Amino acid sequence: MKRTQIYIDEDTFDYLKRESKIKGVTISEVIRESISKRRSQNTEKILTTLNAVAGIWKNRRFDTEKYIRGLRKDRTPW
Fold it and tell me: Tell me: the pLDDT tens digits for 45-67?
């Protein structure tokens, strides 16, 4: 675990202090839980988006490589 220091306004500190007393954990733990939850939500959002777009080109009617080459005709091939 890494140690860090942050600056927060009084209202945020008061909120964190109340949450820590209610949950019976340190302010640091409240912050870590919040960050972890946010990261998890972002991961779920990314996976949902990927599942929504997966396979959208499976029935394409054109050559993808030709299409990309047309877009990049001013570049040299890789």
Answer: 899 999 888 888 788 787 888 88
Q: Are 27 and 20 in contact (CB under 8 A)?
A: yes
Evaluate whether 20 touches 13 at the Cβ level (below 8 Å).
no
CA distance 43 to 48: 9
Angle, CA of 70, 74 and 75, to the nearest 5°: 95
How far is Cα 40 from Cα 42, in angstroms, rounded to an integer? 5
Q: How many CA atoms lie within 13 A of 3 on its CB side?
A: 0
| DSSP for residue 62 | S
Where helices occur in the chain by DSSP H, the ranges are 10-23, 27-53, 64-71
C-beta of residue 63 within 8 angstroms of C-beta of residue 70: no
Tokens read off for 43: 């991961």
